[in-house]
Amino acid sequence: MRLTVDGQSFDINADPEMPLLWALRDLMGKTGPKFGCGIAACGACTVHIGGQPVRSCSLPVGQVSGAVTTIEGIGIEGKLHPVQQAWLEEQVAQCGYCQAGQIMSAVALLDEVADPSDADIDNAMGGNLCRCGTYPKIRAAIKKAAVLKTAGL
């Protein structure tokens, strides 16, 4: 089967029932999405398909229709995405395990809502768990990213 991931076409030989996460990691070398729970409950495996955040650990690769974007593919012309830049500036990461999924959910939020309220952030990020408890920093980074994105940085 053929998949487009981060703007690149991949021909893979995989069981259609293989979770997209394993196809990305094991067959395409995209190690940004992480395995956290395997039941789509933690968000560590979040990628975008057609611009929408999806949990790649529970989506069979044979059901993928549309371009897939991973954390490795969100940068803009060799620069960090505004969400990535804000994550660094706000020093969000502690252990870092959940961060790719958190960032992917935040990017999807800001693609829909330019200036999200706290309720918007809570709603969009509610399915992403962080065992280090960096939620206040995540909120601050999303708000900063909204400003950076609006300013075109």
Automatic annotation (TrEMBL):
Keywords assigned by UniProt, alphabetized: 2Fe-2S, Iron, Iron-sulfur, Metal-binding, Oxidoreductase
Iron among keywords? yes
Determine the domain of life of the protein's source: Bacteria
Return the broad EC class: oxidoreductase
Keyword hit for tRNA processing: no
Question: Residue ranges of the 2Fe-2S ferredoxin-type domain?
Answer: 1-74
Instruction: Give the E.C. number(s).
Output: 1.3.99.16
Molecular function in Gene Ontology: 2 iron, 2 sulfur cluster binding; isoquinoline 1-oxidoreductase activity; metal ion binding
The name this protein carries in UniProt is Isoquinoline 1-oxidoreductase subunit alpha
Give the organism's phylogenetic lineage: Bacteria, Pseudomonadati, Pseudomonadota, Alphaproteobacteria, Hyphomicrobiales
